[in-house]
Amino acid sequence: MAQTLRELKFINYWLGGNSVTLQGLSHLLGPAAQHAKPLTIADLGCGGGDMLVLMANWAGNEKLPVRFTGVDANAYIISYAAQNTTAFPEVSYSNLNIFSDAFGGSNTM
Description:
Layout: H1 2-14, H2 17-29, E1 39-44, H3 50-62, E2 66-72, H4 75-84, E3 91-95
């Protein structure tokens, strides 16, 4: 599983998925002055937490007060991601299936 998560990080970087997400955040959130309250951003199916690190770095550079939550149904993935992001106190995790009632929604789409 760890090797798969490392490969996913590589693929997301080289196929441009990371830059698309960061460009989207920049477009949606704009300058820090527009946000009086801290924001919370969730990464559903967070994998190894790589995107959370990139977003946390982006928010820090933009001086935006943002908290991040990584959500994944796999406990191993949550543990792996938490180990990879110990330097980012603004990142937390939830071991939860997004299709479960515990997530706050129904199982139908």
